[in-house]
Amino acid sequence: MPDLELWILHPKGEPIPRSTAAESVQLLLIDGSWRETSAIAQEIGTWGRLVNLPMAGESRYWLRTQADGGRFCTAEALLFVFKEFGLKAPHAQLLAQFELHVYASLRARGSKEAALEFLQSSPVATEFSELVAHLDVRRPR
């Protein structure tokens, strides 16, 4: 959209200006491995403004081993964007779906102990309590 400033979210970008309204920007999230996203950012860096967010804490994306702290998956980056702009409803909706995805994927991979551990600090246990209970029902083989 011509009226919007394009922001490309990348750890090597400049900090997001605090006074910017969400409605004035279009955000591009680069998805891939850390090496891939760095190469992509170099290729497309002239398309818009490279920006970063203060992202702290531990990743909830338990489906991949994080090489070191401070690294988050693309969905988590979008969660930080929603939080930065004060978009509470989209943040809550995406967080619930993201957490459900991680929990269900852990179970599907046969990592039931990890799934139970994940569930202890997840909104999935309350927001999807019926589904969680249904998943715990033993099925005949």
Provide an overview of this structure.
The chain is α/β, with parallel strands linked by helices and 141 residues long. It has two domains: 1-52, no CATH class; 58-141, no CATH class. Helices cover 44% and strands 14% of the residues. The chain contains six helices and three strands; from the N terminus they run ββαβααααα. The protein has helices at 34-44, 74-84, 88-108, 112-119, 124-127, 129-135, and strands spanning 5-15, 25-29, 49-52. Strands 2-1-3 form a three-stranded parallel β-sheet, with helices on both faces. Helix 2 packs antiparallel against helix 3 (88-108) and helix 3 packs antiparallel against helix 4. It is elongated. The N and C termini lie far apart (54 Å).
Name the features.
elongated, alpha/beta, 6 helices, 141 residues, 3-stranded parallel beta sheet, single chain
Largest sheet descriptor: 3 strands, parallel
Assign a percent range to the helix content: 40-55%
The number of helical segments is 6
Q: Helix/strand-derived class?
A: alpha/beta
pLDDT averaged over residues: 88
Shape: elongated
* Total beta strands: 3
Instruction: List the secondary-structure elements in sequence, H or E.
Output: EEHEHHHHH
Strand-residue proportion: 5-15%
Distance between the termini: 54 Å
- The residue ranges in which pLDDT falls below 50 over 5 or more consecutive positions are none
Q: What's the arrangement of strands in the largest beta sheet?
A: 2-1-3
Radius of gyration: 18 Å
Overall tally of domains: 2
